[in-house]
Amino acid sequence: MSLLEHLHMPRLSQVGIYVKDMDSSIRQYEEVFGIGPWLVMEGETEYCLDRGKEVTVQGRIGMGYTGRIQLELIQILSGSNLYLDTLGGLEEGIHHLGFEVDDLDERLRACREAGIDVLQRGTLKQLGMTIDYAYLDTLDSVGVILEFIQTRFLGMKARQWPWTIKLLAGIQKRFGFP
Predict the structure, then answer these.
(1) Into how many domains does the chain fold?
(2) Which residue range(s) make up the domain with 109?
(3) Which of 10, 35, 42, 61 is most buried, by the most CB atoms less than 10 A from its CB?
(4) Which residues, including other chains, have CB under 8 Å from residue 175's CB and lie 6 or more apart?
């Protein structure tokens, strides 16, 4: 049985890409590939355990869609940088594949049973959303880091649907928040 079969992976929902410059990367995706609109959030982790050490990470995240797949652009402004540490010497590039889950703790228990460690686990809060995530130590076993993502909106289970992110991106563009 393969690793993915053992964990009963849900449908792929996100491709995470580390970038040096959020604004120029978004322009490139919009102008060259027609991907947008982009919701951009800036802030720091509410909680982050990076390779066993509690850290604070400040950064920017841009979310845009191509079909049903979210492209997540990540720019770290300060703090621990797992992204650069795991890109094999590259300054930018694909960092992870993300899968939305309903119960992050349950998924992480299954990972422990399968012998898969967690590289980083954290919580982000912004715009009424709470995003709990975990990057799995799967680079050597499957060639890319896998991420589980659990989203809540105002405390209730939620998904990051393309239409909601696009709506928030449109409001952000028009009114300039946050």
Answers:
(1) 1
(2) 3-171
(3) 61
(4) none
Instruction: State mean pLDDT over 19-39.
Output: 96
Residues contacting 125, CB < 8 A, separation 6+:
43, 46, 131
Residue type, 39: L
Alpha-carbon dihedral angle through residues 35, 41, 42, 46, given to the nearest 10 degrees: -130
* Per-residue pLDDT, 21: 97
> What percentage of the chain exceeds 70 in pLDDT?
96
Q: Exposed (0-12), middle (13-18) or buried (19+): which is 50, by Cβ within 10 Å?
A: buried
Please indicate, yes or no, if residue 126 is contained in any of the structural domains.
yes
Report the CATH number that the domain containing residue 67 is assigned in CATH.
3.10.180.10
Kind plus residue range of the DSSP H or E element containing 49: strand 47-50
Query: Which residues pair with residue 162 across a beta bridge?
Result: none
pLDDT of residue 135: 97
| Residue 178, domain member (yes or no) | no
